[in-house]
Amino acid sequence: MRLFAAWLSDATASEPRDPTAMTLATVDESGMPNARMVLLKGADAQGFVFYTNVDSQKGQELATAAKAALVFHWKSLNRQVRVRGAVERVTAEEADAYFASRPKQAQIGAWASQQSRPLESRLAFEKAVAINAAKYAIGSVPRPPYWSGFRIVPAQIEFWHDRPFRLHDRIVFKRASPTEAWSKTRLYP
Length: 189
What we know:
Strands 1, 2, 3, 4, 5, 6, 7, 8 and 9 form a 9-stranded antiparallel beta sheet that branches. The chain is α+β, with helices and mostly antiparallel strands. The protein has 5 helices and 9 strands, in the order H-E-E-E-E-H-E-E-H-H-H-E-E-E. Strand 7 and strand 8 form a beta hairpin. It is about 30% helix and about 35% strand. The chain is elongated.
């Protein structure tokens, strides 16, 4: 996790946009893979955290399979990090604290959006935003009950660094459980 923190710091200094952007891969109920971009909101010894509507497609897939993979690709650094692991929900206190830190318009958007469900028109969404903006015009916006965070508890983290002539560096860290020590293996590119 220290190496990841160092690489993320490098990316934050050099990546022109969204150094915390990561591909999140899940599987649906039929076993079909599904991937999309989300933003990392925390990374520590416990894992990698992002927030979403838990009733969304990704939320349902994470609740069903409880395993996921992440990919960070920092093109400006010629680096990539891949993460695989079990998924758990963050605590209500963690979700409340992060939700409270978001801009008010983003909080209202969380109430207005029925993420991943069919939308009859853009106007219908804009109307839902306006209704919730009026509802929460004064005071703080509470976290919706269907909005929370997920933590990927890593079982494997691979660091890849591009080198000339495809002579890349690859190092993978693995552990059998969150309480066990990491093993380190260098891989052929």
